[in-house]
Structures are given as structure tokens and as C-alpha cells.
Amino acid sequence: MSKIDELITVCCLVLFGIVTLKTNHVTALIPEQCAHNVSQPFSTCCPTDPFNHLVCGGPERGSCQHLTIHREYVPRVFLMDDRMFWPTRFFDHLCHCKDNFYGVACEQCWFGWTGPHCDQREIRIRRNIRSLSEDELELFKDVMYRSQTWPSGFWVLDEATNNRSDPLFKPRFKSASVQYWAAFIHRYGARPTLYETEEECSRFGILNFSHDGVTFPTWHRYFQLIWERMLSKIALEVHGIHNFAVPYWDVIGLEKCDICNDEYVGGPGHTDRYGVHLSANSAFTGFKEYCLEPEGDEVCFGCQGTKPTTTITRQFLTNAFPNQEDLYFTLNLKE
């Protein structure tokens, strides 16, 4: 494989498709072990390792430490955002993991590492989805299907209404499946600040702090790594697969979506006011639309995940796929 092919592989890990630091500030949103501590005085999220039953995995893995965040000037209108200076609106003590240990309780290894001491390199091969055998493709579909109900281990905020988006004001949380978690976190990281009044929403609710920011590639890459690890747990427990990896879709030079059919991710089905649903013959036809966008002209809104009312829809905003020149241009950018 040439260097450019390797880069294409990395750049095209966009199939289907957090704010956290290597020191293991809370990944995703609220670990289920810590939900009862949210926003309490001296709120702590330092759970015990489920394997050795020691806080933060014990002194060889990590320790419970006070959270310090570098604060910069932020316009006053954004200070009420619960994502600001993450995750200090939720917790002030978290597990600080040593070396390559990782996780809410330092119970895991950082990505790319394995072994009892997280000091052995782990290699997972992500392959083009078009190159998977029939059995491999069916296994991938089964893992994705099970993710709808498989527990993620995290709770997410009830954002059905904007006045419940502040964790300091009568917060409500909901246990999330892997698929619900993925939908919620993707929306949570990308949505604007949630304001209660239409005036504030129209003035300040146009900002997208993830997709319109310089950190988008890093944020989305990390999001996919966590999601892939959750899917890996399903593959291991159900199929005994130890090296599961999410396949990629190479879009370079395409003139149309060549996996938007029932063999892969589902062909077009019926159309209603929500959009074009997946074909009834697709393995994913019953997937819930967890973060259904409200009808009308609302600008700032969260994930309406507490009331999934329809199945997922597909709507292409453009059919223009990047070509080799676009790829080379992107890779040659220095800043």
C-alpha cells in the first residue's frame, strides 16, 4: 500500500457517522456510576475499577484528582453553555490515569494499546467496506443492529426542551444505548448553545462549535474511536471477535453513493414529511431517529432523543464527491 493510499484510508473513515483529554476527563457524557453526583458540592466522578475494585484502578493505574481547566475569555452570552470549560459544570474531581491507562476508572487502555499493563501495541485493520466478504459484512451489520439496544454505560441529558439543558437546573438523564449515545454525542458536540428565548436563539444560536471549528478533524476522529470501541465490545461478547474494526468507505472519485443499497447500508425507501427512509429490505430500516430535528424555524435545539418518533432518513445535501486533486490539496495544506 502506497503512502497516499494509507492517507486515503485514514481520510475516508467516514462510514455512518467529546470532549475529553488524555488525562481522562469524562468521556462521552455522564458515566452511569457517577450520575447521582452531578452538580453536587464537591462533585466527584472517581469510580472503582470493575476488575480490581480499586478507585481509579489503584495507584499503579491512576488517582482521583481535582480538575483544573485553562480558562480563556469567553463572551458572556456563551457562559451558560454546559459544555463550556468541560466538564466543570458536572464534576470537579475525576480520575487522572497514568501512562497508557484510560477510561472513567482507568480500567481500559488508551487507543492502540493492550495488555494487563497497557504497554503492548494493538493493531486493528480497517478495510474498505466494499472488500468485505459476505460473512464479514453480515457480522458488521449484526453488530450495528445490536447497537440500538446495547447499553453504552453512559447517561445523556434530556434535551427535549431547552430549559432542561442546564445540568444545574433540575437536570434529567436517560440511559443510552450505543446507537443513542452516538446520535446524542454527535449532536451535543455540534449544536449551538441552547437558549430559552427565540431572540437569543436567533442572535447567538447560529454557531456550530464542532463542524465549523478548526478542531473538527480531531474531535470527529476521537468520537469515532470511542464509538468503534463500543462496537468492538459487542463483536467480542456476541461473536468472539477480538480485533473488530469499523470498515471505511473510500469516496474519492465517486459519482454517486455506491453503498446506498440494501447490500450495504440501505437503499431508498418510502418518503414522508421527515424525508427519505431506508428500504424495508435494509438491515437498518428500523433504526430510530434519536435526534429528530424539530419542524419549523428553530435555530438552537438539542437532541430530542427522549421521544424517537420515526426511523432514520437520508438526505444528501450534495452529490459532489472529492476527487484525487481535492485530496492532494487537503493533504498539502500546512496550516
UniProtKB/TrEMBL annotation:
Pfam families: Tyrosinase. This is Tyrosinase copper-binding domain-containing protein. Keywords: Copper, Metal-binding, Signal. It comes from Opisthorchis viverrini (Southeast Asian liver fluke). Gene3D superfamilies: Di-copper center containing domain from catechol oxidase, Laminin. PANTHER family: TYROSINASE FAMILY MEMBER, TYROSINASE-LIKE PROTEIN TYR-1-RELATED. One of its GO terms (molecular function) is metal ion binding. Residues 183-323 form the Tyrosinase copper-binding domain. Residues 1-28 form the signal peptide.
